[in-house]
Write a structure and sequence with these properties.
Number of domains: 1
CATH class: Alpha Beta
Order of helices and strands: EHEHEEHE
Radius of gyration: 13 Å
Shape: globular
Number of strands: 5
Structural class: alpha+beta
Number of helices: 3
Strand content: 15-25%
Largest sheet: 5 strands, mixed
Helix content: 10-25%
CATH topology: Ubiquitin-like (UB roll)
CATH superfamily: Beta-grasp domain
């Protein structure tokens, strides 16, 4: 069971409260977690990743185990603590400005 935390605007869009728990089969990667998330909550398609390219949206970041995974390959395995459900996979809305 993979735990996913979304920013408030996406939990509102998906009509969920708190963490989302997903069953993901296979080696646990960002791509598979996001595929499972979008399959279960189709209203999120295109909000986290671009529909055409599958690339992360510019102001969205991915974190797990206090590490920024945003620039990692979407097919790289996620940390063991995420795979075991000990830690969540975080989708964060990045801040911009200056």
């Amino acid at each position: 069971m993979i735990r996913v935390r979304l920013p408030a605007h996406l939990t509102h869009l998906a009509q969920v409260r708190g963490e989302i728990r997903l069953d993901v089969v296979g080696p646990i990667t960002q791509r598979l977690v996001l595929d499972a998330l979008e399959a279960r909550y189709p209203m999120l398609r295109g909000t986290i990743r671009d529909h055409q390219t599958g690339r992360r949206r510019p102001f969205v970041r991915f974190y797990a185990c206090e590490e920024d995974l945003s620039n990692e390959s979407p097919d790289a395995p996620l940390p063991d603590r995420v795979v075991t459900g000990e830690e969540p996979f975080l989708v964060i809305g990045a801040m911009a400005g200056g």
